[in-house]
Design goal:
The chain has 27 helices and 27 strands. By secondary structure, it is an alpha+beta fold. The protein has four domains: about 45-155, 2-Layer Sandwich (Beta-Lactamase), CATH 3.30.450.20; about 170-275, Beta-Lactamase (2-Layer Sandwich), CATH 3.30.450; about 290-445, Alpha-Beta Plaits (2-Layer Sandwich); about 475-715, Alpha-Beta Barrel (TIM Barrel), CATH 3.20.20. The structure holds ligand C2E and calcium ion (2 copies). Ligand C2E binds near residues 510 and 523. This is cyclic-guanylate-specific phosphodiesterase. It comes from Candidatus Contendobacter odensis Run_B_J11.
């Protein structure tokens, strides 16, 4: 370019001035722009959490932007140092690799390592670096950006841990969406429930619940989760294979960033074993360890409950306090183990003597308490006597045959107390009295009851003698065919001609006899007497009849019964049709399954078997079908109001139809027919036979024959003289 000639024309000078001016302006503007750009860059660096760094050719830090301060790492400490001098992690090999890359002047990205802050905290950094060269192309160092990634790494770590925990935990975990449909389950869930993830995805976890337990939770559960964010409780669930298991489950709500529920997480711990242990502990707390009988605590609970029920129903209840006589002496002679064996056997025997609703408790060494609901003086006495009688059988302990007796004290609700404490106290007082009275006996708390019991005791011993002293006799009640009112049979009913009290009806002494072994003797006597009478009638020329004898359930358990009856029939040359046996419906349940053989043998023999007082028990049709029955006797209670009560009429008709149908094919007999109207209704309903005052009262044999003859056997009039003789 040519130099400027100062003698240049003024116009040129002005032009140059203008250019210079413009240039100066431009430079000012450029500087300003540069400053602005620098400020922007500075602001940027200050406002981001990232920072900018520079290193010289020996990789020593020469510069940090302010962003580093946010990591709480003071840049002053770093300046002049290399990265590996500062790091707290990475192996020498890893650093060697990094340095090799730097030595090769390579750019790098996302190189991660840790350094420690002032406070001693480790921070993870991630850096990118770019090698720098000067104008001549010589390597001058590195510059780049750094970022604190501690949080990101922690979150990542947590996620990895959470995933590992989800997979590895032994608790079953399920995750549902807000519709409560399963979206994920862990392996423990599959192990516990037996369902694979594929089988449960999309299903509501409620399908796991076993139907065995009341579902009290469900509705409040979700309400609580919504309100508190979680719910905890126990469930009984069902495995895929059908087995049930108990779980303690926590259901928690998971919210999204906006605070709305997005998922539910259920964590279930298997507590089946704990539950079983709890039940065992509960059982131990309420049972005696030796005999497994309920203990005093459980007695208290059951007694409270029974008392409340009894009071509401206006019934009676009995508490029996039992104590073995002279157990201490026996125990001293025996070893401890043998004493225990004896107690276990006593417990077992007491249990066989009581019913399902009764409670037998052991409340101390040789002390037992029986709680008998629905029990009045009568039954209390019967149970006590049954126990005394059962203790006559020795107990086989080790090689011994031990005889031991028991004393019993009886307290009755409401008579002897209105609460458990009083009743127990009074039963104990009565027990004390029983011991005073010489042991091996039972005593009522209230004296007047002892008096009544004593009277019964007298009666009982008298009855024992009455059989031997021929004070018993049989009365006969005619049984007629409804279609033509012909006498076709009779029922034999026992009477006791007491020398002082006159004729005692069976209602007063049969229960006594049933409570002891007397009932069997009485039955044997009746069987013999009826056979003898039948033979006498036959010998007198009277036509053959079927006479029914009432037997107690206990009798059928006697294995010799069939042979005995067979022997009697043979001895009196009677056909099997001469006898029929009556067994009440309520005692059917008592006879037990092993009597079926006896009943079948009777059927083979040809002796009929009638169900007495039918309609008062609870026998099932299928049970009746299994038994070899021949007749069914409709209880008096259904006949009594037949005329006035349409319900009873329906019931009677139903029983008759039942006896005839359903493969039973039984003869149906109506009991207690007192009027002609009753007779007509029963006839209309298709009933076969009837008994009752309308046709004839139970009377002595001679009177029975007289009535029988009036019915049309005048041709055997002569024979009557014979029978009465
Ligand atoms: P059961 O076997 O149901 O006998 C029928 C009872 O009803 C008899 O009472 C009889 O006298 C009575 N009776 C008959 N017809 C009528 C009537 O038209 N109206 C009314 N109101 N009653 C009538 P009994 O003889 O006092 O016998 C009562 C219960 O004693 C018998 O009931 C039976 O369970 C039992 N029993 C009687 N004799 C014996 C026996 O030898 N052995 C056994 N184990 N129990 C017997
Ligand atoms: Ca009967
Ligand atoms: Ca009856």
């Amino acid at each position: 370019m040519n130099s400027i000639n100062i003698s240049a024309p003024a116009s040129v000078v002005a032009r140059l001035r203008q250019l210079l001016n413009e240039y100066q302006h431009t430079e000012i503007e450029l500087r300003a722009r540069l400053r602005a750009s620098e400020a922007r860059f500075r602001d940027l660096l200050e406002m981001t959490s990232d920072w900018f760094w520079e290193q010289d050719a020996q990789f020593r830090f020469t510069y940090f932007s302010t962003g580093l301060a946010q990591t709480h790492i003071p840049s002053t400490e770093l300046l002049g140092k290399t990265r590996w001098e500062l790091s707290t992690n990475l192996t020498p090999e890893q650093w060697a690799a990094h340095r090799a890359m730097l030595d090769a002047h390579q750019p790098f990205r996302k190189f991660e390592y840790c350094i420690r802050t002032d406070a001693g905290e480790e921070r993870w950094l991630s850096i990118n670096g770019q090698p720098q060269f000067d104008e001549r192309g010589c390597f001058s160092g590195y510059r780049g950006a750094g970022r604190d990634i501690t949080e990101r790494r922690r979150t990542g770590e947590r996620q990895r841990l959470a995933a590992a925990m989800f997979e590895a935990t032994r608790d079953a975990i399920f995750i549902t969406d807000t519709e409560r449909n399963i979206v994920a389950v862990n392996p423990a869930f599959t192990a516990l429930s037996g369902y694979s993830e594929a089988e449960v995805l999309g299903r509501n976890p409620r399908f796991l619940k076993s139907g065995r337990y009341a579902d009290a939770h469900s509705a409040p559960l979700w309400e609580v989760v919504g309100r508190k964010g979680f719910w905890q409780g126990e469930f009984w669930n069902q495995r895929k294979d059908g087995e049930t298991y108990a779980v303690l489950t926590t259901i928690s709500e998971v919210r999204d960033a906006s605070g709305r529920p997005s998922h539910y997480v259920g964590v279930a711990t298997d507590i089946t074993h704990q539950k079983a242990a709890e039940q065992r502990i509960e059982h131990l707390a309420y049972h005696d360890a030796l005999t497994d009988l309920p203990n005093r605590a459980l007695l208290g609970q059951r007694a409270e409950l029974a008392l409340a029920l009894t009071a509401r129903r206006h019934e009676a209840l009995a508490l029996l306090s039992l104590d073995l006589d002279r157990f201490k002496e026996i125990n001293d002679v025996l070893s401890h183990t043998e004493g225990d064996i004896l107690l276990v056997q006593v417990a077992a025997r007491l249990k066989t003597l009581t019913g399902d609703t009764d409670t037998v408790c052991r409340i101390g060494g040789d002390e037992f308490v029986l709680l008998l609901p629905e029990t009045d003086q009568e039954r209390a006495l019967r149970v006590a006597d049954k126990i005394l009688a059962a203790f006559r059988q020795p107990f086989p302990v080790a090689r011994h045959s031990l005889r031991i007796t028991v004393s019993i004290g009886i307290a009755l609700y409401p008579h002897d107390g209105s609460n458990v404490t009083d009743l127990l106290k009074n039963a104990d007082a009565a027990l004390h009295q029983a011991k005073q009275n010489g042991r091996n006996t039972r005593t009522f708390y209230a004296q007047e009851m002892n008096a009544a019991a004593f009277e019964r005791l007298v009666l009982e011993s008298e009855l024992r003698r009455a059989i031997a002293a021929s004070q018993l006799c049989a009365y006969y009640q005619p049984k007629v065919r409804l279609s033509d009112s012909q006498i076709i049979g009779a029922e034999a009913l026992v009477r006791w001609r007491h020398p002082d009290h006159g004729l005692i009806p069976p209602g007063r002494f049969i229960p006594l006899a049933e409570a002891s072994d007397l009932i069997a003797e009485l039955g044997d006597w009746m069987l013999k007497e009826v056979c003898r009478q039948q033979a006498a009638w036959r010998d007198a020329g009277l036509p053959p009849l079927t006479v029914a004898v009432n037997l107690a359930a206990r009798h059928f358990r006697n294995s010799g019964l069939v042979a005995q009856i067979q022997g009697l029939l043979a001895a009196h040359s009677l056909p099997p049709q001469a006898l029929e046996l009556e067994l009440t419906e309520s005692s059917l349940l008592e006879i037990g399954p092993n009597t079926e053989e006896t009943l079948l043998a009777l059927e083979r023999l040809g002796v009929g078997l009638a169900i007495d007082d039918f309609g008062t028990g609870y026998s099932s049709l299928s049970y009746l079908k299994r038994l070899p029955l021949t007749a069914l006797k409709v209880d008096q209670s259904f006949v009594r109001d037949l005329v006035s009560d349409p319900d009873d009429r329906t019931l009677a008709a139903t029983i008759i139809a039942l006896g005839h149908g359903h493969g039973l094919g039984l003869q149906v007999v109506a009991e207690g027919v007192e009027t002609d109207e009753q007779r007509r209704i029963l006839l209309d309903q298709g009933c076969d036979l009837a008994q009752g005052y309308f046709f004839g009262q139970p009377v002595p044999a001679a009177d029975f024959v007289a009535g029988w003859i009036r019915q049309g056997f005048s041709d055997v009039q002569d024979a009557v003289e014979l029978t009465e003789a």
